[in-house]
Every structure is written in structure tokens, then in C-alpha cells.
Design goal:
The chain has about 100 residues and is mainly α. The chain has four helices and no strands. α1 packs antiparallel against α2 and α1 packs parallel to α4. The chain is elongated and about 50 Å long. The mean pLDDT is about 85. Keywords: Membrane, Transmembrane, Transmembrane helix.
């Protein structure tokens, strides 16, 4: 069970690293960011889905049915970092 619980902090680290990579590849020139936002969102969602599913399967394999509890919370770091990362990184989009 402990190994399954330790995978959740790994989800936080992985989601941060993926979001950092997205921010490094974003073209911030005027007009381009607004047009490419959907593409960046889709790429991040695919990475989040793959990592959440893989982490959830690993947690269930490690802890059995009790692994469903931390596996169900695997999407939280991805959503929080995406939601508030864009506001912090690109405040002019919200103005």
C-alpha cells in the first residue's frame, strides 16, 4: 500500500515537468498563442490521461482494491497545475 501511495507524489512531479515542457514550447508572440492554445491543451490532456491511467493501473496492481483510492485522485495534480499554471504564466490571457 505504501508503494501505491508514493506514486501519487510522482504524479505531481510528472505533471509539473510536463507543464513546464509545454510552457517552454509555447510561442508567445501576439496572436499565435491564442490560436495554438487548443493544440497545447490537447497535448497536455493526452499526457495527463496516459500518466493518470498508467499510474492508476500501477497503484491498483501494487495495493489491490485499496489502490483505487489514490488512483482516483491521480487527475488532481494535472488539473490544478494546468488551471492555475496558465493564469500565473500568462496573466494577459485573462485580462
Amino acid at each position: 500500500m505504501l508503494a501505491a501511495l508514493l506514486l501519487h507524489p510522482a504524479q505531481w512531479v510528472l505533471s509539473f515537468l510536463v507543464l513546464d515542457l509545454v510552457f517552454r514550447t509555447v510561442d508567445v508572440r501576439p496572436g499565435i498563442l491564442e490560436r495554438s492554445l487548443g493544440r497545447h491543451r490537447r497535448r497536455y490532456r493526452l499526457a495527463a490521461l496516459a500518466a493518470t491511467l498508467a499510474g492508476g493501473v500501477a497503484q491498483v496492481l501494487l495495493a489491490g482494491p485499496w489502490g483505487l483510492v489514490p488512483a482516483a485522485a491521480g487527475w488532481v495534480p494535472w488539473w490544478l497545475l494546468w488551471r492555475f499554471g496558465w493564469r500565473k504564466q500568462f496573466p494577459h490571457l485573462r485580462a
